[in-house]
Amino acid sequence: MPDGAEVAGLGVYTVPEAARLTRVPAQRIRRWVFGRGGHAAVLPEHTAQEGQEALSFSNLIEVLFLQDLKEHGVSWPTLRKAAEMAQRVLQHAHPFATSRFHTDGKTILLQTANETGDRHLIDLLSGNGAMYEVLERSFTHSVSFNGPEGIASEWRPDARAERVVVDPRRQFGRPIDRETGVPTDILADALKAENGDAARVASWWNIPIEAVEQAAEFEVRLGLRRAA
């Protein structure tokens, strides 16, 4: 894993951690980010340490968008082509993690569809592009962009837990309660230790009971993904 100085502000996630958070299979993440079994579509920001590969927050967001396209049937070669084209046109190493792509990227995907003939991507973009607009609205609803380049700055990984966010500038990108910054796993562990007394746990950190409950519920769902 990269050291603390390297990951400051970037976030750091092992492949299993990224798989649990994004619900994307670990094998697929390794292929997309590290080129296992083919050329990568995403450029890793972290250098592997002692053979341990890690994703940055930007990588996490890129994987999320690629997965959205994959779920619409877009093929791996097309995904890779779209990533290469977006990097070249936008002159950014992580285009899918920028707001510019999510406002102007349809043109890049149309060009990709024309060059590859990928039927699923063509269908996604066809007509007035309504299907693609739905995909984009869903994606950008959970991701916030910030700064002059519009870089992804925050992600809400669970629509059922509005207080839970992932922010690379806070707690090295661990899931946290947005208002207080307390990591969700700490709150969940404390709730378990106190036999479900959310009011008592909330009083420790001077936070709303809702923060404890949402964090614990989020961690339960995350644990279920881990078990699966």
> Helix tally?
11
Q: Major sheet, described briefly?
A: 2 strands, antiparallel
Question: What fraction strand?
Answer: 5-15%
Topology as a string of helices (H) and strands (E)? HEHHEHHHHHEEEEHHH
DSSP helix fraction: 40-55%
Q: What is the overall shape?
A: elongated
Query: Which parts are unreliable, with pLDDT below 50 for 5 consecutive residues or more?
Result: none
- Gyration radius (Cα, Å) is 19 Å
Strand order, largest beta sheet: 1-2
Structural class: mainly alpha
The count of DSSP E runs of length 2 or more, i.e. the number of strands, is 6
Give the integer mean of the pLDDT values.
Answer: 91
What is the straight-line distance between the termini? Answer: 24 Å
Write a structural description.
The strands form three sheets. The protein has a two-stranded antiparallel sheet. The protein has a two-stranded antiparallel sheet with strand order 3-4. A two-stranded antiparallel ribbon has the order 5-6. α9 crosses α11 (209-227) and α10 crosses α11. The chain is built from eleven helices and six strands. With 228 residues, the protein is mainly α. The longest helix is centred in the last third of the chain and has 19 residues, at 209-227. The model has no long low-confidence stretch (mean pLDDT 91).
Set out the fold topology.
Elements: H1 4-7, E1 13-14, H2 15-22, H3 26-34, E2 54-55, H4 57-71, H5 76-90, H6 101-116, H7 119-125, H8 130-142, E3 143-146, E4 151-155, E5 164-166, E6 175-177, H9 184-193, H10 198-205, H11 209-227
Antiparallel strand pairs: 1-2, 3-4, 5-6
Helix pairs in contact: 5-6, 6-7, 9-11, 10-11
